[in-house]
Amino acid sequence: NTALLLQDIHTEVVFSDRTTYVPFIAESREAVAQVTEFDDDFYRMEKTYHRTVNDPMALGIAGLSHSTSTLNARALDFIDDIGYNQREHWSRYTPNTIVADSLLGFRYILTKDQKLETFYEPVLTSGDITACRNPYALPIVFAAATGFDEEIINSSNPINFQCQLVTALTGENHMDLFTPIQDFTRTLSGVTESTYGSHKRFTSTGKMGSITFTVNVDRDGPVYAYFPTDYRDTCALAVNGETLTTLFGNETQIVVWLGDYKAGDIIDVSLTVTGEQAYIRNATSYFYSLDVAAWEEAYAKLSRSPLELTRRTETFMQGTMTVYEDNTTVFTSIPYEGGWTIKVDGEPVEVKIGADSLVCFDVPVGDHEIEMSFCPPGLKEGAVISAAAFVLFALLVVYRKKCGRQV
Hints:
The mean pLDDT is 90. 25% of the residues lie in helices and 36% in strands. It is an alpha+beta fold. The chain has a 5-stranded antiparallel β-sheet, with no helix packed on it. It has a 5-stranded antiparallel β-sheet with strand order 21-22-28-24-25, with no helix packed on it. It has a 4-stranded mixed β-sheet with strand order 1-5-7-6. Strand 6 (121-126) and strand 7 (129-133) form a beta hairpin. It is built from 8 helices and 28 strands.
């Protein structure tokens, strides 16, 4: 039975070879060790190269990539909504916008040969791995707009979702943080186009048909693409002939950075249909530019009231925070689970759910000491029941021995 079970597991998820594991883990752990020696604060770190979606657990970093059968549906929905790679019970980090990375506290990204946005600053190199620092990375815990209005955070478009989230957290209108680029044309090669409900269906007439968008960049700065779809027919995405990633397969609904450009630059963005067909949902635009000045203004406001940590373990954080009149709701990028206890100046406060998935709570104006502790729901009760069962078993053993009976 054990042999059959192991064989079934291998057939479904595959046991990897040791030779693929040891070098990968060794070089990545060395890079992580150098980063943590360079910066021993509490932050998130991720990487652009992957072996499995559970690499962060193996490397001991606070990442986004993860797979679990005890899924937190709220957290996975949030990851998908904001534009990262998420499917079923797993998530995987893929470069998003500087805004999304910053809101979730990604301070360092490890990369080998994949380009990152020019905002990221290389800080060290370990073998083939370069660690790049995000200068806009927000703390894991920081004060946001008082009673921020999360009802406005509801878009199914990750770019708009990010605008809504920044608007809610700052209490200021940042719905135009990203601007849709309307000036583009489309050329088809080796595919036919037809309407399929709310989508356009592109069917290959040869081996490698493609859809090419010629985009006229509207302002200086980064440009992003988001192609919505309800289908998973893989396409390869290229910019000016250089392949960046794949879309619509495992990377179904991700935001992709296309590069930094000047106003008036012309770029060709092509989707190569690798199968028989591909589907793109109808939209007025698939390309967006970032208002860098507006983002820096929003970042300045969001970063002024961080939780300054004085003590931290895997289940406990303690620190100080200065709260102003317009930012008395504390936002964290920690997924909500039952079991959180939060105290402000020693007094318990209500734990709330922000953006329908993250831990949040209210704090009065002024300087405060904050404690956040986590105990998995049912752990204490389970420990009590287990202890009681052990005591009863021990008493039963003693009783049976006194009575001359075998247990």
